[in-house]
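Reviewer 2 asked us to include a model.

Predict the structure of this chain.
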Amino acid sequence: MRRVAITGIGAISALGRNIAEFAESLREGRSGITPIESCDMTDIRFRNGAEVKNYSHQPYFEDRRADFMDRFAQFAVIAAREAVDSAGVVWTPELRETAAIITGSCVGGQSTEDLGFVEVYKLRHNRVHPLTIPKTMANAGASHMSMEFGITGPSYTISTACSSAGHAIGQAFWMVRSGATDLAITGGSEAPFSFGILKAWEAMRVVSPETCRPFSKDRKGMILGEGAAMFVLEPLEAAEARGARIHAEVVGFGMSADACHITQPSAEGAARAMRAALRDARLAAEEIGYINAHGTATLANDPTETVAIRSVFGAHAGRLAVSSTKSMHGHALGAAAALECLAATLALRDGVLPPTANYNEPDPECDLDVIPNQARSKQVAYALSNSFAFGGLNAVLALAAPR
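Predicted model (structure tokens):
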């Protein structure tokens, strides 16, 4: 089986509109959580989110094309453009025919669907926007990416709630490793800031009224985020032969299902996914130096994830660096795993571990080294990126620093 390199990275999120801005925000521990401006929050009990501030399609898309694209699909293409450009991909007819696109999205274009419901049920209009269906479908990001680059190979979208992008990246990794494709563009995108979706999250009573404080004893819940992160994966040998920059390697992928509850996390299920990723990577637990945690800052998730990490790593858990970058870019649902895999990739590449921002007070139930508030200069060889979704569907990626 082939080794798999990450040769292209791209992002747009509350931490910046490109990789340079995203990386700088992580290094500075700068949170992108602010009052939500893109939606009327008057009748919603929480106020804050991690938005792409003052976003407009106009620097990126002509008006006519943007009419066909929900915000989440626009984010997918913007991040993919940067990833493909940074990888220096030279397109040939053969590569376009065999390259794969695998993306993750949890809610897809439900912001567009929400507007349609307002037209029909609130305003009593007899029609909705004629492009509502193609804008709402969760695969729209992947489809627009295929048109952007002229890719006619296998392209599809995975929707497994908060693990969507993790499953997508893992599937793309396996396809490149096995030889099913010689290049894959993969990641996730999401744009959940519309009134109906926010009201639904309000009803869950898991959203913080202030900010996201993972692993901190005074945490009060998650903060929603939006954006996209995309990667170009290709065989390491081919990447080195063409002189491509290697940001990191994907070396393993593990999955599991909790099979116990639709919303409550399971330490056993999370631990199974981490062990599966280690087995797939042929790594010993002691070789992992950093974990980008799922770390939602809910009362249930953080101690459960701590138990899972201690179960897998034993005594080594006390030597592990663990952080949740959701404290900065928010919980971007189907895009969360992509943004977090990107944070882990940059940590391995640059030797700077991102912090858990907004941290105030140690919690005895979350007794890990959570890199509180300030990034840490430390080169590690291997990292995990954890994603544990509602529905009990878990995805864990194992990454290696570039050699």
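The CA atoms of residues 381 and 389 lie 27 Å apart. DSSP finds 14 helices and 14 strands in the chain. We have added this to the supplementary material.
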